[in-house]
Amino acid sequence: QYPPPGELLRVMGKDDPRRGFVLNPVYADPRVHFLLSCGAKSCPPAVSIARMNDGKWESVAAEAAKNFVTDENQVRYDADSNVLYLNKIFSWYKKDFGGTEALMLLNIRRYAGEGWEVAGKIEGKTPKIKYMKYDWQPHASRIKTYSPAKSDANAFKMISSYLKTSFGRPTSRTRYAEIRQERRELEPLEKKAAEELEARMKEIQAKNEKA
């Protein structure tokens, strides 16, 4: 059982260098949750970073949000019980989607757009919100074969392609080495955060067993 993201502790302290890459909450767009994927069955489909360049963010985000909320595997209404079942992402990041069930539902309707079938079914009603169990099993269609022998070359090509697409220039192997070094410097911080999270989870599990 995975804990709700961000619920147990702050992963990054005030001096953590990764904070520089965190979005300002004032400008953050909650639709980013429909563009990120860990490859699990309950995750949204992954979206290529290249598609979001050249001013295409709005159209790509709108499309991803609409596809997600109109998918019955992610948002489903049961008329008999008047229950609206939502993907667990809406529970974990409730604040991002408005902070209240009313505002969250309003945003979901906005993302779905005109002609959303569920909108007609819940018109004039106040459905009870329930969250689906998150399926962490890997989505078979999103799994790609990994080749250890080519891992470094593949990683270089991937990073080069991304930076070239984003900034219009190829990536030198020197810059690639710098990126790998930056990654190594972050590893101890990530390891420490993971250890703290694991210790906290064991603490909570022990309390639950006593209760």
TrEMBL record:
Molecular-function GO terms, alphabetical: electron transfer activity
A GO biological-process term: cell redox homeostasis
Matching InterPro entries: Grx-like_ET
Domain of life according to the entry: Eukaryota
PANTHER family with a match to the protein in the record: GLUTAREDOXIN, GLUTAREDOXIN-LIKE PROTEIN NRDH
Protein name: DUF547 domain-containing protein
The species this protein was found in: Perkinsus olseni
